[in-house]
Amino acid sequence: MAAHLLLGALMLGSALAISYHKPAWIPLGDSLSPRLGQDVTNGNGVLGTLDAPRLAKFLPDTHASRHRRKGYSPTDIGIGDVPVTGVTRYYNFTITEQNIAPDGVVRSGMVVNGGYPGPTIEANWGDYFEISVVNALPNEGTSIHWHGLIQHETPYMDGVPGIVQCPIAPGGNFTYRFRADLYGTSFYHSHYSAQYTGGIYGAMIIHGPTENAQYDEDIGPVLLNDWYHLPPPQSNNNLINGKMNVSRQRCTPNAGISKFTFQSGKTYRLRLINAGAEGMQKFSIDGHTMTVIANDFVPLKPYQTDVVTLGIGQRSDIIVTATGKAGQSYWMRSDLGLNALSNPAGCTNNDGVSPLALAAIYYEGADTNSVPTTNSTVPESSIQSCMNDPLNMTVPYYSLTPSTTPAMSQNIDITFASNGTNYLFYMNNSTFRADYNDPILLEAKLGQTVFPAEENVISTGNASSVRFVLYNYAFTGAHPMHMHGHNYWVLAEGYGTWDGTVTNAGNPQRRDVQLLPPAQVNADLVVTSPSYIVLQFNADNPGVWPLHCHIAWHVSAGLYVSILENPTAIKSMHIPKPAAWTGKDVPDQIDSGL
Ligand SMILES: *[C@@H]1O[C@H](CO)[C@@H](O)[C@H](O)[C@H]1NC(C)=O
Ligand SMILES: *[C@@H]1O[C@H](CO)[C@@H](O)[C@H](O)[C@H]1NC(C)=O
Ligand SMILES: *[C@@H]1O[C@H](CO)[C@@H](O)[C@H](O)[C@H]1NC(C)=O
Ligand SMILES: *[C@@H]1O[C@H](CO)[C@@H](O)[C@H](O)[C@H]1NC(C)=O
Ligand SMILES: *[C@@H]1O[C@H](CO)[C@@H](O)[C@H](O)[C@H]1NC(C)=O
Ligand SMILES: *[C@@H]1O[C@H](CO)[C@@H](O)[C@H](O)[C@H]1NC(C)=O
Ligand SMILES: *[C@@H]1O[C@H](CO)[C@@H](O)[C@H](O)[C@H]1NC(C)=O
Ligand SMILES: *[C@@H]1O[C@H](CO)[C@@H](O)[C@H](O)[C@H]1NC(C)=O
Ligand SMILES: *[C@@H]1O[C@H](CO)[C@@H](O)[C@H](O)[C@H]1NC(C)=O
Ligand SMILES: [Cu+2]
């Protein structure tokens, strides 16, 4: 197996050679540059501290009358028409470079409004967000994506450079305006190269119905992310709400850990978000079971578990009952598990030093400076699965049945190979590269139907329902496959060739990110069986929608296609003055662009 692992490391290293030459990835020194006596912190922001506010069930709403706009919502939402509230929630973002020290180790980061993680944005379902973004980075473009939203009728607000807009130039600004068209838990992040892995992200919470869940208090976002002191591929730490100690040794600087409070007997909603670069998270709370009520923006028939798996870009809303007693404290954990490069059972590339993120939960009366002493109650075997929970467990609360005879059905093969100088990912033999100055949506609006091969455009024409069978021939870890503009159905997952069987055919799992496991290989690194997932959606949301791996390094290396949905409807769509069109002087593109 050693040859396999060494080759794996080399392949990933080469793939990454193209993707980290940017300020966010240049640490202060060649080795860790720990400073004693911290003078640099995460800047503004209260997440992870005892001052973090509980969230309200709904934001104050000055417009009492809510009506539903018929025909507004695409059918794959499954929750009826979106309410029209007449309310807009305004935010201002300024993007800057800044040194941060989430775990006590100082490095250069990129942040929103001077804080890491960025500010939490909130709306009620049906409100508009209006967010002005100023790019104060010295020499990089930027662009902000609102992860998981449908963007029905506003595909040009999806924030993906080269696809629906040009990058916001350094010194420039752009105002995003879009409806909070789904409800639940998500995040916003830069979609420009791997920029968000340097810190340009924050939680996005949309308040809506809670028919499937009863709880007393909303703890709010619990952001989970792998963290790097040095260039990838190996992560060096793991953070909860942007905090974690580096080590327990006193000579090493530590930033302290995130803290939460529980009151015995109450029930809490926690909004788990994997906002990391590469690492799959296994979340648990010692001595407490969790009830999962939503995956991504899709409410579920609640089910209990003692560990929640989150690939990059995935979210899970959970309810936890505070079964502990006054004065007690417990560990909250999020585990990246074994290092995949040195252990075939691992799911994540970490250096093995600190894959386990910890945060403290203090019951009433507990000393909030004490260190919990609880042990994990999760079996090791549950930590080492590189799959999401089985599809027969994750049943949407609002039932929707996909067509058994979709108008369009296509396979896409995912491979990892050298182009002569770099290892890249290929979708049906084509690796993706964005053209920042020529967004696909704007060309589609002008009637263009044929695109450069490297833009990986797949047109669905006027098909009403579309199915993709994704076959993965790469064994570089599970790919969290994210689609913009839709909650797709996940009809099936497995190894080999899909036999047409659908799990829960009347109401299959829906979400916007699903883990596609690695291919199976033998000891000689020959693929013995590809893995697959089968995705389907109703094509009633004209636009250009990315379908890509959410691992930052993988989309950087081309694991990406653009779904051009209903091009005829795009031609007659009203698209305001192109977003942040620079025309020329686009900053250097160091990777696929996304
Ligand atoms: C955003 O900034 C503008 C000034 O540039 C200010 O007028 C406005 O009130 C700010 N909005 C918010 C929500 O802070
Ligand atoms: C955005 O850019 C426009 C055009 O350059 C400028 O007039 C405006 O002041 C800028 N707004 C902000 C908030 O920087
Ligand atoms: C984290 O580091 C801080 C500062 O060194 C220390 O006070 C605290 O006890 C550490 N916490 C844990 C859980 O190790
Ligand atoms: C945690 O595990 C250690 C080692 O097995 C054991 O000594 C300790 O009592 C356990 N703590 C609790 C609170 O169960
Ligand atoms: C889900 O499927 C697995 C095997 O395919 C089976 O063992 C399990 O009982 C099923 N669970 C439910 C809830 O149907
Ligand atoms: C990918 O290639 C296969 C085999 O040539 C083909 O059947 C399929 O249509 C292609 N997929 C797309 C989306 O073009
Ligand atoms: C291989 O891909 C890299 C990264 O996209 C590119 O810079 C290089 O020119 C490509 N090499 C060849 C031989 O096409
Ligand atoms: C990709 O290219 C290889 C080598 O030319 C070929 O064998 C294979 O069929 C192609 N795959 C697809 C999906 O087009
Ligand atoms: C859909 O597209 C096909 C092929 O382009 C065309 O033959 C058909 O007439 C179109 N159907 C509708 C309803 O527009
Ligand atoms: Cu991937």
UniProtKB/TrEMBL annotation:
User: What SUPFAM superfamilies does UniProt report for this protein, alphabetically?
Assistant: Cupredoxins (SSF49503)
**Domain Plastocyanin-like, first and last residues per copy:** 95-209, 224-337, 438-567
Q: Which PROSITE patterns does this chain map to? A: MULTICOPPER_OXIDASE1, MULTICOPPER_OXIDASE2
Q: What are the record keywords, sorted?
A: Copper, Metal-binding, Oxidoreductase, Signal
* One Pfam family per UniProt: Cu-oxidase
Q: Which family does it belong to?
A: Belongs to the multicopper oxidase family.
What name does this protein carry? Laccase I
**The species this protein was found in:** Neohortaea acidophila
